[in-house]
Amino acid sequence: RGVSKTRIKIYGHGNEDPIAQGKSPEALAINRRIEIEVGPVGHSLKAGHPL
User: Fold this and answer.
1) Which domain holds residue 8?
2) Domain for residue 7, yes or no?
3) What is the total count of domains within the chain?
4) Which residue has the higher pLDDT, 16 or 51?
5) What is the DSSP string of 1-51?
6) Span 24-40, mean pLDDT?
7) What is the pTM of this model?
């Protein structure tokens, strides 16, 4: 049951790809996020690639 850890990839983009600019609490809250992408098994997708 569940998803095998070999099928999950984790990438950190917070410092390199912020949504909001600045160090205010509001900007930091916006940038504190996760993004989940679901794609076909055995295929690799680039960030921002539409499904």
Assistant:
1) 1-34
2) yes
3) 1
4) 16
5) ----GGG------TTTS-SS-SSSHHHHHHHS--------TT----TT---
6) 83
7) 0.49
User: How many CA atoms does the CB half-sphere of 8 hold within 13 Å?
Assistant: 7
- pLDDT tens for residues 14-31? 778 899 999 999 999 988
Using CA atoms, how far residue 14 sits from 4, 24, 28, 46, in Å, is 25, 15, 9, 16
Among residues 10, 12, 15, which one has the least CA distance to residue 27?
Answer: 15
39 lies in a domain? no
**40 lies in a domain?**
no
Average pLDDT over residues 28-48: 73
Phi, psi of 40 (to 5 degrees): -65, 150
Tell whether 43 is covered by a domain: no
